[in-house]
Design brief:
Jelly Rolls; about 375 residues; 5-stranded mixed sheet; 8-stranded mixed sheet; 12 helices; Oxoglu/Fe-dep_dioxygenase_dom
Amino acid sequence: MAAETASLLPSQAFPSQPTKITSIKTLAESPGLTSIPATYTFTPDLHDQVICVPEGSIPVIDYSLLISGTPDQRSKIVHELGRACQDWGFFMVINHGVPENLLSSILDGCKGFFDLPEEEKQEFKGNHVLDPIRSGTSCNVSVEKAFYWRDFLKVFVHPVFYSPTKPAGLSEISLEYSQRVREVARGLLKGISESLGLEGSYIDKAQNLEQGKQIFVGNLYPTCPQPELAMGLPPHSDHGLLTLLIYNGIGGLQIQHEGKWVNVCALPNSFLVNTGDHLEILSNGRYKSVLHRAMVNNKATRISIAMAHGPSLDSVVSPAPELLVSSKGNEPAAYAGMKYKDYLEIQQSNKLDGKSCLDRVRIPAV
């Protein structure tokens, strides 16, 4: 199919296609679009078999019990958090206290940004991976040979808050949303610290989360006429400690569990949470960052908002020394220390490719 598409003239395959694609939204809305450009096609192995796990298999964490439950309830939730990080690298969070109307408002605000005219979105395109506001398409078009069926908005929202000035109201909503989600993330990290046998405040203090980098990532995955050939985002792990995600009810997120891909459907008003590379580093591999990917469909546009939470940019992340000493003797560090800013810049400047960035700091076993 890809070869047939490539052989067609642009005017035949992609009516009204602009000479330079600045957004997938523009391409997807081209009148009469029935196939995708060859530069957006992927080999079949990226669309390998997906399994369905029994309902209730994916861990669910009741946040209210973590912050205000009885000592026994809290102890149980801390244990469940540890098991979720160890066995899945992924869990859902319910009863988190973030109002449902705020979740819907931030999704609406994000949609409003993607609905802006192309020339207005271009005002916020950014030029460098550490620019505080960047919008664009695919992931990193300067190094990609095949492009992803995705538009994005990336904004640094802590320790300094930034926001696009358009559409009206987005800045105020994203500020409130960012603050509320950050509070939940820090509460989860406190429980995760305890699940590792560390002080509850360990991760917060060791990674200077008061100045921690929080990044708002809005994703738009328009309908695709050939979803079996396209990818929203390829298999990858996230930088940072935890990513909290919501979406507009249209599925597409898949996580890898025990070598198989699993479709994820969120419980109502929940956060989907995945562990990042820096939690794997800090825990010396006890908790692994999870591989995940985004698929597209030909029926409905998917919007998701991922909120990444990492250390301060100047924090050097390495395995917690307390985890390298046990009753069995000293355990070797499995990862070399690297400043978070350097790791972030490396990952965001290269192709998304599994855990290739984490492999750069992995210390080979002797």
